[in-house]
Amino acid sequence: MKHTQQENDKEITVLELRNYLLKPNKLNDFEEYFNNHFVTPMAELEGFTLGQFKINNVNDRFVWLRGFEDMKTRVNFLNDFYINSTTWKNFGQGANAMMINSDHVHLLKPLEKSTTLDFLDINEGIVLIDFYICNSTLNKVIDLFKTTYIPFLKSLNISDLSLWVSEMQENDFPRLPVFQDKNLLVTITKYKDLAEYEKKQKLIAEMNIELKIALQELVTIHSNLVLEKI
User: Does CATH number 3.30.70.100 belong to domain 5-229?
Assistant: First the structure.
């Protein structure tokens, strides 16, 4: 999927991480339907599809990222697309017929500054999304990442990484529910391929004991998604 220069110039300050559960054996059909009917019309309304994935070793999950310049752009898009557009009126029912659940959505924003579509154009290789729930310790975890953990990753030549937290502004389109957790830190990391990802994970597991204990003490729950381009 290639973006126009106009899209690439947009700054993304709101990110939806959307994780759909599909009916059995519908992944390829849904992906084709999604690309044929939705990607271009959404982009024309400034809701940008940044990547489409399956979960490694998991069937019937379609994960995709949708980005917006800001929350005002997002709510305008959602009304224009889901309420007013002929695209959704004509093709929404067909998409819903292939899904079991579409409500697993995280609403995120960049930790420090906006980024561009070019940076998030992650349609090749492996994308690792880590979720760190940090009950009452989020600021301490962010500080640990900045001062110690990210430099450690960079020492392993892992540098294609971005940090996100929940966007806590009110979800002003409740028809599409989202997760908003004030204690959540999310990292999105890109790897060239599965072999590189597996190699680097082994190296990460060998981190020094002080850093490992610090992470264990501050992070309440750690989970991740290993995503592959469909």
Answer: yes
